[in-house]
């Protein structure tokens, strides 16, 4: 199973924000630089995370973004379901566009369906807090990257 870049970036934003001291503001440039990813992509991601109520955006000169919920309240399975466009692992998972002739008798769709449910079930068992056991470790890595970039 593979997550889209959109979901990957959503998770990265949340991990970055969760690694910060509580209520400390960050900005898109800071996050993009930390991960060496596109600011434009992150703008879309943060906008949607804000609409989902997972992050809070503060406008203005001293604005920024931060978690809107406690990391313990942000469920990974729920986030993945909200950010993935679909879970069409194979053609027959998309009823509208399925033209596979073996669909009525195929056992593969049931196996893959069971695997998908197990995958999502495991994700449901974890929160953002579970992913950020040691926030200082993350902060150290983000600061190391920043130092490396400024020294070159």
Task: Please sum up the structure shown.
With 152 residues, the protein is mainly alpha-helical. It contains 7 helices and 2 strands; from the N terminus they run H-H-H-E-E-H-H-H-H. The N and C termini lie far apart (37 Å).
What report would you give on this structure?
The protein is 54% helix and 5% strand. Helix 1 crosses helix 3, helix 1 packs antiparallel against helix 4 and helix 2 crosses helix 3. The protein has a two-stranded antiparallel sheet with strand order 1-2. The radius of gyration is 19 Å and the shape is elongated. The protein is built from 7 helices and 2 strands, in the order H-H-H-E-E-H-H-H-H. By secondary structure, it is mainly alpha-helical. The model has no long low-confidence stretch (mean pLDDT 91).
Report Rg.
Answer: 19 Å
Low-confidence stretches: none
Order of helices and strands: HHHEEHHHH
Strand order of the largest sheet: 1-2
**Assembly state:** single chain
The number of helical runs is: 7
The biggest beta sheet reads:
2 strands, antiparallel
Percent strand equals: 5-15%
**Helix-strand makeup class:** mainly alpha
Notable characteristics:
mainly alpha; 5% strand; 152 residues
Per-chain topology:
Layout: H1 5-19, H2 28-35, H3 39-51, E1 55-58, E2 64-67, H4 76-83, H5 108-124, H6 128-131, H7 135-151
Antiparallel strand pairs: 1-2
């Amino acid at each position: 199973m593979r997550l889209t870049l959109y979901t990957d970036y959503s998770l990265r934003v949340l991990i970055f924000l969760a690694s910060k001291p509580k209520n400390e503001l960050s900005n898109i440039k800071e996050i993009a630089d930390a991960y060496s990813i596109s600011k434009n992509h992150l703008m879309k991601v943060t906008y949607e995370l804000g609409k989902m109520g997972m992050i809070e955006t503060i406008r203005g000169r001293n604005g920024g973004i931060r978690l809107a919920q406690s990391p313990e309240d942000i469920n990974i399975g729920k986030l993945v379901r909200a950010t993935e466009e679909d879970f069409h692992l194979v053609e027959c998972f998309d009823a509208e566009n399925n033209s596979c002739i073996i669909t009525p008798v195929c056992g593969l769709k049931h196996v893959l369906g069971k695997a998908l449910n197990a995958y999502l079930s495991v994700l449901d068992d974890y929160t953002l807090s579970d992913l950020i056991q040691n926030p200082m470790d993350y902060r150290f890595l983000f600061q190391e990257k920043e130092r490396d970039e400024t020294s070159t």
